[in-house]
Design brief:
Layout (H helix, E strand, L loop, with lengths): L12 E3 L2 E3 L3 E6 L6 E7 L2 H20 L2 H17 L1 H12 L3 H21 L6 E3 L6 E9 L2 E5 L7 H13 L2 E5 L5 H14 L6 E3 L5 H10 L3 E7 L2 H11 L5 E5 L4 E5 L5 H13 L9 E7 L3 H13 L19 H16 L3 E4 L14 E4 L6 H4 L6 E7 L2 H9 L3 E2 L1 E5 L3 H10 L4 E4 L14 E2 L2 E2 L4 H6 L2 E9 L1
Helix pairs in contact: 1-7, 2-4, 2-5, 2-6, 3-4, 3-6, 4-5, 7-8, 9-10
Length: about 475
């Protein structure tokens, strides 16, 4: 891997300000072609315990620094990320598979959390409370929760780290991160730049390893850990929540989704199609807020499908570093097998493949961008998060009925509404049981707004002022006369 700054390529764990080997190593491969990118430290539960101990020891000094002092270090980290953005994007593309343009966008998006929270930590205001007793003075202050542990996913290996670590560090917390083993190089590169920025030893730590259950138990059950934050599947999230319960930790969980995309008869079809492509095929559909169920009013169904088919046909598939590529591989073979199974199940139940529907010859992890119609609510593809490049279209007639169908899921992460009628748009946005709603757009994530879901899609929020509040405890202070 050729980089302008080869020092960004790290393969050891980063614990207590040191780059440490583990007893073994684990391979990291390019999902596009299987090429070996390197071997990272295969850390253990003992390595995770060492990282937690380092974070615990570093917390008193880091938390006592002024907000301005912490902000200065974080802004240096932000600038170093921006200065090395091309190298970071290349690392991300090679280990994750997304097109280089998408990877570059993720690096900038990820860095924005560091900049924003560096500024937001100056506003950790408390309150003076009008007292119930003239002889007492009441107030509240905000203080950092303590050691924060994070488990982050492979689909956004840069931004999902900064979205958690930036507000934690800005608040005065210290951090231990376990990145997905498919994409550890992005996490280690971020730590190398954090080290250069001047983050004190122990304030940020990364442990990579194949022993996910063992490492996970330390990060969720060690009594020195005050808060645990996770992005991943609902099934795994539930297990981790149960483990956190033993020490009653604060938690943030960003879990699975089953996002509806509703196209009303008064929608601008060009806008709706472009929004659908943006939310459905980005990162080969491997996005928690990607469209999963596309509901189109019967009067505009055929027009929408025709235009969407043309857009899907125009997508260029290939290695993420190739010029003009719109979609890269999926992360591993079992993801391809899963989406293939969902398509086959839908077709067997009466759905029709309009385009795609098969594995591509580019490599074992490539699946064709796919459009299927005739989908019904009882099919697996309508009930499960497909997490792949499959646009599954259903028809609807009545507004109330489509809202009911959209809400008929245990998930509640994101939803999309396409309508030029402002009254209808307001009605539907308020009626949908989701944490985030996008109207007439397919892209809504931003540093300055809260990101998170309802129901089994998680608890807590990341981003915005709500994301900062997740890393504080509010302390009530009562002073007698």
């Amino acid at each position: 891997m050729k980089l302008a700054n080869p020092d960004l390529l790290k393969f050891q764990n980063y614990i207590d300000g040191e780059w440490r080997d583990a007893e073994g190593t684990a391979e990291v491969r390019d999902p596009a072609n299987g090429e070996l990118l390197g071997k990272v430290a295969d850390g253990s539960a003992a390595d995770a315990e060492a990282a937690v101990a380092a974070a615990s020891a570093a917390f008193p000094e880091w938390s006592r620094r002024t907000a301005g002092e912490r902000a200065a270090v974080l802004k240096r980290w932000y600038q170093l990320i921006m200065d090395n953005s091309e190298d970071l994007a290349r690392i991300l593309t090679l280990e994750q598979g997304k097109p280089l343009a998408e990877a570059q966008g993720e690096i900038i998006y990820g860095a924005s959390f560091i900049e924003w929270f560096a500024e937001e930590c100056r506003r950790a205001y408390g309150q003076t409370i009008p007292s119930h007793n003239p002889g007492m003075r009441l107030s509240t202050i905000r203080q950092p929760v303590g050691v924060v542990t994070c488990i982050t996913p492979w689909n956004f290996p840069n931004a999902m780290i900064t979205r958690k670590a930036a507000p934690a560090l800005a608040a005065g917390c210290t951090v231990v991160i376990k990145p997905a083993l498919e994409t550890p190089l992005s996490a280690l590169a971020l730590c190398r730049l954090a080290e250069e920025a001047g983050l004190p030893k122990g304030t940020i730590n990364v442990v990579t390893g194949t022993d996910a259950p063992g490492i996970g138990r330390v990060l969720t059950q060690d009594p020195r850990v005050a808060k645990f934050t996770f992005t991943g599947s609902t099934a795994v999230g539930k297990l981790l929540m149960a483990q956190c319960a033993s020490t009653v930790k604060k938690m943030s969980m960003e879990l699975g989704g089953n996002a509806p995309f509703i196209v009303f008869d008064d929608a601008d079809i060009d806008t709706a199609v472009k929004a659908c492509v943006a939310t459905k095929f980005r990162n080969a559909g491997q996005v928690c807020v990607a469209t999963n169920r596309i509901y189109v009013h019967e009067s505009v169904h055929d027009e929408f499908v025709e235009q969407l088919r043309a857009e899907v046909a125009a997508l260029k598939i290939g290695h993420g570093t190739e010029e003009g590529v719109n979609m890269g591989p999926m992360i591993f073979r079992r993801a391809v097998d899963r989406v293939q199974g969902l398509v086959q199940d839908a077709v067997a139940a009466g759905a029709k493949i309009e385009i795609g529907g098969e594995q591509l010859p580019n490599g074992e992890n490539y699946f064709a961008p796919t459009l299927i119609t005739g989908v019904t609510d009882n099919m697996r593809i309508a009930q499960e998060e497909n997490f792949g490049p499959i646009a599954a279209v259903q028809k609807f007639t009545e507004e109330d009925d489509v809202v009911r169908r959209a809400n008929d899921t245990p998930y509640g992460l994101a939803a999309y509404v396409m309508s030029e009628n402002i009254r209808r748009a307001n009605r539907v946005v308020e009626a949908l049981e989701y944490g985030m709603i996008a109207c007439n757009t397919g892209v809504f994530s931003t540093t300055v707004a809260p990101f998170g879901g309802t129901k089994e899609s998680g608890i807590g929020r990341e981003g915005g002022v709500e994301g900062m509040a997740e890393f504080y405890e509010t302390k009530y202070c009562c002073f007698g006369a």
